[in-house]
Amino acid sequence: MTQSAIRASAGGGSSGATLSPAQLAELRELLEQQRRFRLEQLEQLQTTEAPGELSNGDREITDSLVAGARAALRDVVDALQRMDDGRYGSCRRCGTALDPARLEVLPQVSLCVACQRADEDGDG
Predict the structure, then answer these.
(1) Measuring CA to CA, which residue among 94, 87, 85 is closest to residue 112?
(2) Any idea where the domains of the chain sit in the sequence?
(3) CATH number given to 3-121
(4) Average pLDDT, the chain
């Protein structure tokens, strides 16, 4: 199923739509692809971290890339766990159904737009 098919079968991407088993399978595959990518990325970054080979500036960049990849991997693994637990597709804070269009772009997302904004504004 393509991303546009996910949107179409979810009622055009309207907020609060329930995800079908086919949509969940497609989103799981996207998450698995992201998980594999992040694991490969971390492996490559750790391979380039041979002691003494990197300057302080290069080490800071590599450390930042490793931290970002680990955070992204954590989000993906958390999303897969939510799928396994039957909690995927709902905001982890308020419980509102997540917009399928949002999930097709960011399948690892765990917050609705309102809760995400509150987090970013420091209200959450």
Answers:
(1) 94
(2) 3-121
(3) 1.20.120.910
(4) 84
